[in-house]
Amino acid sequence: MGLEEALIEAAAYFVRETLGGEAKQALSTPRKRAWAASVDTTNGERRRVSAYISKPSLKQMAKLFLNEESPTDEVLRDLIGEIANLIVGRAKALASDRGFKFDMSPPRFEGKAVTIGKNADKNLHFTFAKDAFTISASRIQV
């Protein structure tokens, strides 16, 4: 199992277990912009896994995760980083169990992304709370 397969399984787990099945996989996202956070992975090659989540979806997730009705932007920035970290951490555990090991960086808030998943090797799109979010993986040129 490589990183992409582990990410697919980890993202599905996040959707099913953490969001309570309220999100569904989609073929694409209607969104052009969203907030972004990323985690870098290393195993011979460097890859960046990014979470792109709109502010309305993040607010809905804050209600589920934190029971927070009116989260501040600071709380939402921390939350998107934690979501990226949760998904990549789960992918790391899944891949490690199957003999594929990689290191991961701490999550990093990237700000408001102008484009979602542009130039990514893999984009996983989900619908949630009448909106959408994307998890993407791309190679990092060194």
Task: Present the secondary structure layout.
Blueprint: H1 3-18, E1 24-26, E2 34-43, E3 45-53, H2 55-66, H3 73-97, E4 103-104, E5 108-113, E6 122-128, E7 131-139
Antiparallel strand pairs: 1-6, 2-3, 2-4, 2-5, 3-7, 6-7
In short:
The protein contains three helices and seven strands; from the N terminus they run H-E-E-E-H-H-E-E-E-E. By secondary structure, it is of the alpha+beta class.
CATH topology: Chemotaxis protein chec
Q: Please write the CATH class name.
A: Alpha Beta
Mean pLDDT: 86
Largest sheet descriptor: 7 strands, antiparallel
CATH architecture, by name, is 3-Layer(aba) Sandwich
- Strand coverage percent: 25-35%
Radius of gyration: 14 Å
**Unreliable stretches covering 5 or more consecutive residues:** none
**N-to-C series of helices and strands:** HEEEHHEEEE
Number of strands: 7
* Distance N to C terminus: 24 Å
Q: Helicity, in percent? A: 25-40%
Count helical runs. Answer: 3
Number of domains: 1
* Shape type: globular
Structural class of the secondary structure composition? alpha+beta
CATH superfamily: CheC-like
What would you say this structure looks like, in words?
- The chain is α+β, with helices and mostly antiparallel strands.
- It has a single domain, classed as CheC-like (Chemotaxis protein chec, 3-Layer(aba) Sandwich).
- 37% of the residues lie in helices and 32% in strands.
- The protein is built from three helices and seven strands.
- It has helices at residues 3-18, 55-66, 73-97; strands at residues 24-26, 34-43, 45-53, 103-104, 108-113, 122-128, 131-139.
- Strands 1, 2, 3, 4, 5, 6 and 7 form a seven-stranded antiparallel beta sheet that branches.
- A hairpin with a 1-residue loop joins strand 2 (34-43) and strand 3.
- Helix 1 (3-18) crosses helix 3.
- The chain is globular, with a radius of gyration of 14 Å.
- The model has no long low-confidence stretch (mean pLDDT 86).
